[in-house]
């Protein structure tokens, strides 16, 4: 297991991940494009394996999938850090760009690729999912 750490732009929020990711994907949904002006690269991790210090703001919205998504961010600098969904209870999305070492993970798929702009650079080596994928396979353990 590789421990990963990260935080926001101003340093007010820091976090530590103590479990391997369940999945890592590039998301091209319209909400992620609004957040990043591009696709977002995300880890899905067990919520119980996260330690967070600092105050977070949050915003809840119904996603195109129909799930309620709570996005959490630094209220000081605005960095988007985490998202929780009613469709993934017990798992949290972590924005890979907030990791101290974002190269420590590699996405396995482009999701919501049907929403990607015509100029998007979709890595052909990654699985391509047109909309919301099913849940990641359970890991043996």
Automatic annotation (TrEMBL):
Coiled coil: none annotated. InterPro entries: CENP-V/GFA (IPR006913), Mss4-like_sf (IPR011057). The keyword Transmembrane helix does not apply. Residues 4-120 form the CENP-V/GFA domain. It comes from the Bacteria. Keywords: Lyase, Metal-binding, Zinc. PROSITE patterns: CENP_V_GFA (PS51891). Pfam families: GFA (PF04828). Belongs to the Gfa family. This is Aldehyde-activating protein. It comes from Hydrogenophaga electricum.
